[in-house]
Design goal:
alpha+beta; T-fold; eight-stranded antiparallel β-sheet; three-stranded antiparallel β-sheet; 11 strands; globular
């Protein structure tokens, strides 16, 4: 298996693949998505800075449409979905190149498809659960989004206190946006924190807050693990400062 670190401007990723050609495809897909986003922001700078949901006009720009739809559903700014959306574009490009296995980790926001079992570790800052367990993701042909937001780890702006919120969805943009949304709002002792997820594109979610863990919906099997911190992709943020 090939593991390659790839950076371009604020996009800092790790790509896993079986062939060099598939890594190259992932890079090209991510770069195309970034160019689509940057072009739209040049035309409408507000898209890149607002913390409010953004109702995207009818445009051909797939990247912007995905981010806008995610922002409307999760109640956050469209840039809250940027990392997941770019990772999604990279994974789609790998599939188009014929790959049967591909993982694109964009600073903790992951898009993957696989012909084998994949284990995804969880880093949750100072929580005692941090780096102690992993999700066992079974083989699947369809791309899955596994996106994590944290109020205590990394440079992204968060209005919450959770150490980690991980969301699972086939719509990677919405997984990213909902991870941010939940992380912004969940607090200790919160009753019904997952209620907003009912009827959405989210399949499952898990919250880690200090010594508490909450699980909602369908999540992959959880197993004990020792996560190697050196393998964590420490992504940056777009100019707006949030994801």
């Amino acid at each position: 298996m090939i593991r390659e670190h790839f950076e371009y401007k604020q996009t800092i990723t790790t790509v896993l693949a079986d062939e060099d050609a598939h890594v190259a495809a992932a890079k090209e897909g991510m770069l195309r998505a970034r160019e689509e986003l940057e072009q739209f922001i040049r035309e409408d700078p507000f898209f890149g800075v607002t913390f409010d949901p953004y109702d995207v006009p009818e445009v051909e720009n797939l990247t912007v449409r995905r981010m806008g739809a995610a922002s409307l559903e999760a109640g956050v700014g469209p840039m809250a979905a940027v990392a997941g959306t770019i990772a999604w574009a990279g994974a789609e490009a790998m599939q188009a190149a014929g790959a049967r296995f591909g993982v694109v980790d964009n600073g903790g926001d992951i898009a993957l498809f696989s012909d084998r079992e994949v284990r995804i570790g969880v880093h949750a800052g100072a929580s005692p659960f941090s780096d102690r367990f992993a999700f066992v993701v079974p083989p699947q042909e369809e791309i899955l989004g596994i996106c994590t937001s944290s109020a205590t780890v990394g440079p992204s702006i968060s209005f919450g206190v959770a150490d980690a919120v991980t969301v699972f969805s086939r719509d990677v943009s919405r997984a990213d946006a909902w991870a941010t949304s939940l992380c912004n709002t969940i607090s200790p002792g919160d009753e019904g924190p997952f209620a907003p997820l009912e009827g959405t594109a989210v399949a499952g979610a898990i919250v880690i807050l200090c010594e508490e863990i909450g699980v909602w919906g369908e999540v992959p099997e959880i197993t004990g693990a020792t996560v190697d911190p050196s393998l964590i992709t420490r992504g940056d943020v777009m100019p707006d400062g949030h994801r």
